[in-house]
């Protein structure tokens, strides 16, 4: 730190992090230095005040308060914020929609139904609106196994305490699982917006209107918005509708925050997505990824003066049900696992904006998807 006497009124002599934080985070030593500055400044403006410690303390407090508010973003009175649940049967494009609404990939997507297993929270702040999206596993009728039951539970619980629901359907398709979602929403107290996704697949747009009319007789939707999540069509309109239906409220999360999920969770989801994309139909979805270790090393300067970039070291285990699946994931001479690793690392580097060293292992853990206790130990218990 610069000698405070050399330039008493220069605020950059203050402890560095004071510019970003409030005074409660200063050490007492730093506070002493700060007070010393303040005395110097006061002496410059008023010679008599040097003997008035109370006034000096008040000046310090005023300075801290004004600095604190100067650093806090000003939120307009008409700011709106709230939770938005994205619900629908499997494969209608809920995760694709959330990623495109966020403009950032958070939720994994694949052609395979039931890709989304957990409740994912994505935060989007724009135009004085903060929408906190909850992407849910698709709801479906076949609750055959423990994992399906848990996914349905997660989707239903996402409907509690939200301000708005986006009910996503696949173009003109209407199947019993859509009916199941509709039944859950009919008595919902919050507004429900029907999002007709995959509108790019419609050959004849005239068929849309009778479909919308039919669905409107089933329940009262606040709005019906046809979109193509994949192509990003009509999402501006959807953003507008979402904003209109959220309550006036200060932001619920930081204005720059994009998710409440820890980085280790997001990286395990990235690995899972790459496996599903690589293997397509070859492997059932009975597969999970466990992050064994996640160590972040900050940027450093080596002994020779060279800079060492920040790096995160990740060890992950892919758990499969059977020996045969292990061989499939590993591939010929490890080629498939290597490809999964390369693609996952690239996505992780984009997400975390730093170098990643990724080590992948494959292990057989029979019967995990049908064992509620094992699922809980893998983190499915809190969904
Ligand atoms: N043509 C077209 N395909 C889409 C659109 N949106 C999503 N898809 C595709 O539909 C498939 C399923 O998308 P997801 O976003 O994984 O669907 P989901 O509803 O989250 O699926 P679950 O995880 O099973 O609940 C993927 O192949 C997407 O590329 C769209 O607007 N148009």
UniProtKB/TrEMBL annotation:
Q: What are the boundaries of the region G2?
A: 114-118
Segments of this protein annotated with the region G3: 135-138
Which segments carry the region annotation G4? 197-200
Q: Does the keyword Membrane apply?
A: yes
> What are the alphabetically sorted keywords of the record?
Cell membrane, Cytoplasm, GTP-binding, Membrane, Nucleotide-binding, Ribosome biogenesis, RNA-binding, rRNA-binding
Q: Name one GO cellular component term.
A: plasma membrane
Where does the Era-type G domain start and stop, copy by copy?
Answer: 80-248
Kindly list the positions annotated as binding GTP.
88-95, 135-139, 197-200
Q: GO molecular function terms here?
A: GTP binding; GTPase activity; ribosomal small subunit binding; small ribosomal subunit rRNA binding
Give the signal peptide, or none: none
Where is this protein found?
Cytoplasm; Cell membrane
| Annotated spans, G1 | 88-95
Membrane topology classification: Peripheral membrane protein
Q: Which SUPFAM superfamilies did the record assign?
A: P-loop containing nucleoside triphosphate hydrolases (SSF52540), Prokaryotic type KH domain (KH-domain type II) (SSF54814)
Give me the ranges of the annotated region G5: 227-229
Matching InterPro entries: G_ERA_dom (IPR030388), GTP-bd (IPR006073), GTPase_Era-like (IPR005662), KH_dom-like_a/b (IPR015946), KH_dom_type_2 (IPR004044), KH_sf_prok-type (IPR009019), P-loop_NTPase (IPR027417), Small_GTP-bd (IPR005225)
Q: Which GO annotations describe the biological process of this protein?
A: ribosomal small subunit assembly
According to its UniProt record, where is this protein mainly located? Answer: cytoplasm
Asked if the Swiss-Prot or TrEMBL record annotates the protein with the keyword RNA-binding, the reply is yes
KH type-2 domain location is 279-366
Q: Give the family from UniProt.
A: Belongs to the TRAFAC class TrmE-Era-EngA-EngB-Septin-like GTPase superfamily. Era GTPase family.
HAMAP family, sorted: GTPase_Era
Q: How does it assemble?
A: Monomer.
Q: What does this protein do?
A: An essential GTPase that binds both GDP and GTP, with rapid nucleotide exchange. Plays a role in 16S rRNA processing and 30S ribosomal subunit biogenesis and possibly also in cell cycle regulation and energy metabolism.
* Name of the featured protein: GTPase Era
